[in-house]
Amino acid sequence: MVFLNKVTDDVARTVVDASSHWRDDQVACWKQAYAEEEIPHAKWAMENFIKNAAVADKKHCALCDDTGTPHPFLEIGDEASLPAGFLEAMEEGIRKGLNDLPARPMGVRGDELERISQCKGLYDEPGMLKPAPTQIRRMAGSKIRLTVLMLGGGPEIRSRTQALFHMHSLDHVVEEMITWAVPQVAALGCQPCTLSFGLGRTAVEASSLSLEAMKDGRYDVQSEIEKRITDAVNGKGIGPIGLGGASSVLATFIKIGDMRASGFRVVSMRPNCCMEIRKASCEWETL
To answer: pLDDT tens-digit profile of 120-166?
Structure first.
C-alpha cells in the first residue's frame, strides 16, 4: 500500500531530479551532437552546456535559472486505485521539491484578476508556484507512476497550437510542421532544442498529446517522421544559441492521437529549450 508521507518525499525528490539531471539517452545525444559539430564557436557553446549539466547533476541544483513550472503526469494501473489523500500528498511533494531545489520564486500573489497583471508581486517561497493541472492516463498492472516535467517560459513564447488542413496528405502535414518549427527554433535563443508535437482533434487534446510526447520521448529512439523533421530544421543552419552549425534540434518527439472525420488536424508544437526536456519519474506498488 502507498503511504502518503512516502508519496510526498518521493515526489519532492522527483522534482529535484527533473530540475537538475539529464537522463542517459539525453546526455549521449548531446555528446554525439557535440562530436559532430564542426563550427568552433558552436562547439564551444555546446561544450559549456554539457559542463553546466554535469555541475547541476553533481550538486543537485537547477539546470537553468528559469526553473520551470511543474507539470504532473499521472499513470494509474488498471489494478490500482489512488488512496484517499494521494493528490494532496503529491501536490505537497511538488511544493517541497521546489523549496528543496530551490526553484526560483515565481508564484504570483493575488486573486485571479490581480494575478494577470502581477500587481501584488510574487511569493518569496519557491513552492508557492502551483503545478499545472495533472494529466491522467491508464496503464496495465497495479502500479501508480508519476512523471514530473519542468517546463520553462521561453519555449512557451515560441509554442503554437493551431488547426491545420491535411489535404489528405501526410507529407503536407509534416511539411507544414517543419514550416512552423523553423522560425520558432531560430527565435528561441536557447538552441539546440527538442521539438515536441501533439496531433489531435481539439486544441486541448493536441496540447495534452504534446506533453505526453515529452513524457515518453527518448533521444535514442526516433521514428522516420521525427527524424525527417529534425533533419529538415537542422538543415537550416541555425545552430547552438543561433551561432550557426549543424545542431539546431537534438530530437523530435511526436504523439498522434485519434482523429475524426474532418478536413483539419489540430497540431500543438513546443520547441523545448537546450536545458529541456527536464523530467523525472517515481512509482509505487499498490498491492
So the answer is: 999 999 999 999 999 999 999 999 999 999 999 999 999 999 999 99
> Residue 205: exposed, middle, or buried by beta-carbon count in 10 A (0-12, 13-18, 19+)?
middle
Q: Among positive and negative, which fits the CA dihedral 235, 43, 218, 103?
A: negative
* 113: Cα separation from own chain's centroid: 28
Helix (H) or strand (E) holding 77: strand 69-77
Residue 1: count other Cβ atoms within 10 Å of its Cβ: 7
Q: Which one, of 19, 274, 270, 278, lies nearest residue 157 by Cα?
A: 270
The model scores a pTM over 0.90: yes
Distance CA 174, CA 156 (A): 21
Q: How far is CA 249 from CA 120, 145, 170, 188, in A?
A: 39, 29, 22, 11
Residue closest to 280 by CA, chosen among 81, 89, 96, 72: 72
